[in-house]
Design a protein that fits this description.
By secondary structure, the protein is of the alpha/beta class. It is built from 10 helices and 16 strands. Helix 1 packs parallel to helix 7 and helix 6 crosses helix 7.
């Protein structure tokens, strides 16, 4: 049985899932995507380039819920609407245009981590696993019945980008194995347990600010959760902006200072954290300029030890 689908897609998940539909012979008369931002183009695959390489029509509307655009989608008479990391919330008019279902691929194991930036949030909160979930769309974000999902591990030093790469792979797997049943009309629909749901909002660059009173684990999880290509974890040290781009927890290493402190020892740079534990700095930059960890003393103008202020003290 053939099927026709209008696809709303972005980033690597969008590219992989679009390729799945084409490999399965689904007719895709229109691909809806977003303009590739410069920092994203360096890290993520382009849905626009992929769609055009397959001869598909591509559109980049400012508002997917504009009345004229909704009419355009409805006129295509799609069997399915698929959303693969679309940035905008798709409204009821477009969802209703899908004769056999409107489905979204979400980057978490729903009902956990509904909302924006689910991979980043999972890493920041220290989770050890996440995944991809294919579910029906409703008027509430990420709340519809689940068709299928697959987990991936989050390793202790994985960045959000590392995890996103894994999620993109299992998103492809989930869609590939679910598509035959969707087309045949026999796919499962498992209601989500609302009591187990959690929701997280959009992150902003300023949310990456480090407070040195936190534990080594809390700071490490923030660093890897917002590491490039995301804006990065940062602190204002004196008049300089220090970004920690990659760190690791030094298990078994005793703190050398009672107060939070940054210091260089034997060619490596460490942070004694106010909430306990020691971090080793692997990659950093100062005012946007990459600095070797062992050279942070020179870059931040300290000889042996730099006492770090708590965020509340910096704010004062």
């Amino acid at each position: 049985m053939s099927a026709r689908a209008v696809v709303f897609a972005n980033h690597d998940v969008g590219v992989r899932c679009l390729r799945v539909l084409l490999a399965a012979g689904v007719d895709v008369p229109l691909v809806v995507t977003h303009r590739d931002e410069p920092h994203e183009a360096l890290a993520f695959d382009s849905v626009t380039d992929t769609a055009r390489a397959h001869g598909l029509e591509v559109t980049l509307p400012e508002d997917v819920n504009d009345a004229a655009f909704c009419e355009r989608v409805a006129a295509l008479e799609p069997d399915f609407i698929f959303s693969f990391y679309c940035r905008q919330m798709i409204g009821a008019r477009i969802l209703g245009a899908a004769r056999r279902g409107a489905l979204n691929m979400h980057g978490s194991l729903l009902p956990a981590y509904r909302g924006r930036a689910p991979v980043n949030w999972a890493v920041i909160r220290g989770e050890t696993s996440t995944g991809a979930t294919l579910h029906y769309m409703t008027d509430k974000p990420d709340a519809g019945d689940i068709v299928d999902q697959e987990a991936v591990p989050i390793l202790p030093d994985d960045t959000a980008f590392d995890v996103f790469t894994k999620v993109a792979v299992v998103a492809e797997i989930v869609l590939w194995r679910s598509l035959p049943a969707l087309i045949a009309g026999s796919a499962p629909r498992v209601p989500q347990d609302a009591a187990r749901a959690s929701y997280f909002g959009r992150r902003r660059p300023e949310d990456g600010r480090i407070d040195w009173v936190w534990s080594a684990k809390t700071i490490h999880d923030l660093v890897r959760g917002v590491a490039p290509p995301y804006p990065g974890a940062f602190a204002i040290v004196g008049a300089r902006k220090l970004r920690l781009l990659r760190t690791t927890i030094e298990h078994g290493r005793a703190q050398r200072h009672a107060a939070p402190a940054l210091y260089v020892h034997d060619g490596a740079c460490y942070v004694d954290c106010g909430g306990g534990g020691v971090l080793r700095v692997i990659e950093a930059d100062v005012d946007g300029v990459p600095v070797a960890a062992a050279a942070l003393g020179s870059a931040l103008a300290f000889e042996r030890v730099l006492t770090l202020q708590a965020e509340s003290e910096v704010a004062e």
